[in-house]
Design brief:
Elements: H1 12-28, H2 32-47, H3 56-69, H4 75-81, H5 99-116, H6 119-136, H7 139-155, H8 159-176, H9 179-183, H10 190-199, H11 208-226, H12 233-246, H13 257-267, H14 272-279, H15 283-297, H16 302-311
Helix pairs in contact: 1-2, 1-3, 1-16, 2-3, 3-5, 5-6, 6-7, 7-8, 11-12, 13-14, 13-15, 13-16, 14-15, 15-16
């Protein structure tokens, strides 16, 4: 197996973030060993760069995703990375520069608790994260924490409550086009979703198009997990994503048509001034749109936005 190597460039933070996203894609495709090799290299780089050590929770979460896909125990990761989260409290969620770091730290805690079968503690963390996300209007994480809440209730045998929680998450996902938050399930609520799908336990306000699109994405994710040697996993994922997009409004992730246009120009490598010129809008308006795009895609910067747009086929390919 060919090892992926980190390129040398001056922008260490963007390089680390980009390769963390690459590892995410590899794990999603079932190429977990390649993902782990990349993440281990990245871990050593971060250890020598204290200024970007706030990426450790995000790195740890990707390691956990790969470990779970391979059926490995998360205990060793908890020992190695537990001290990375000691300074992060739930009060720091969604506030200030520690925003993303705190969210990924909470995701790591939830993943470890779910993996340990401690649904009671996981439910407590999920509820606190849910309340916090509702207070600040973070819809993406409100959906995610609702999904974890539904999973914990399901594991505790409280199906009616779990069904209500999952339906609530899906109603939000349909309204604001966050279907990928439901489909890209790292915690295990897909088992509950399949039972609900089999019993047709969905809210009446959930459209058939949304349900069928979500079903296609979840089936594609299952296929990736069970067939890591697939000849063209990236192409298959892009096709599945496009099928869903064709049956839904164009503003995936809540992006407006204008934001999608600007995102498309961003993937061409244009600077803000050229984007403003091409879009015939003011430079300050471009910056405002970019901040909205970063927030909706849950990314930090232009590089991450481009990576995510290409990963999820949010913009048209160039011929």
């Amino acid at each position: 197996m060919k090892k992926s190597k980190l390129p040398d460039n001056n922008n260490k933070t963007e390089r680390a973030i980009s390769y963390d996203h690459l590892a995410h894609c590899l794990t999603t495709q079932g190429r977990c060993e390649e993902s782990l090799l990349l993440l281990v290299q990245l871990r050593f780089r971060l250890a020598r760069q204290p200024l970007i050590s706030d990426l450790l929770p995000e790195l740890c979460f990707e390691l956990m995703r790969a470990y779970r896909r391979m059926g490995l125990d998360l205990g060793s990761l908890q020992e190695q990375y537990g001290d990375c989260f000691a300074h992060i409290s739930l009060e720091s969620l969604f506030h200030g520069q520690q925003d993303r770091e705190a969210v990924f730290a909470l995701k790591c805690q939830l993943l470890m608790l779910v993996d340990d079968g401690d649904e009671l503690s996981a439910l407590n963390y999920a509820m606190q994260g849910l309340i916090k996300s509702m207070q600040v209007g973070d819809l993406r994480h409100r959906i995610l924490f609702s999904g974890v809440k539904a999973l914990c209730e399901f594991k505790q045998g409280r199906y009616s409550e779990a069904r209500e929680s999952m339906n609530g998450a899906m109603v939000l996902a349909q309204r604001f086009q966050f279907q990928y938050v439901i489909a890209e399930d790292d915690f295990g609520w897909s088992d509950l979703w399949r039972i609900m799908d089999k019993n047709n336990d969905f809210e009446a306000q959930l459209s058939n198009e949304f349900i069928s699109g979500l079903r296609a994405l979840i089936a594609q994710k299952d296929h990736m997990s069970s067939s890591p040697a697939s000849a063209s996993p990236i192409a298959e994922t892009v096709v599945a994503h496009r099928k869903v997009r064709s049956s839904l409004r164009p503003d995936c992730f809540g992006l407006t048509e204008k934001e999608l246009k600007i995102l498309s120009l961003l993937t061409e490598g244009l600077c803000n001034k050229r984007i403003a010129r091409r879009s015939e809008i003011a430079l300050t308006t471009v910056k405002w749109h970019l901040q909205n795009i970063f927030g909706k895609l849950e990314v930090r910067n232009r590089t991450q936005a481009v990576v995510k747009a290409q990963e999820l086929a949010l913009v048209n390919d160039k011929a």
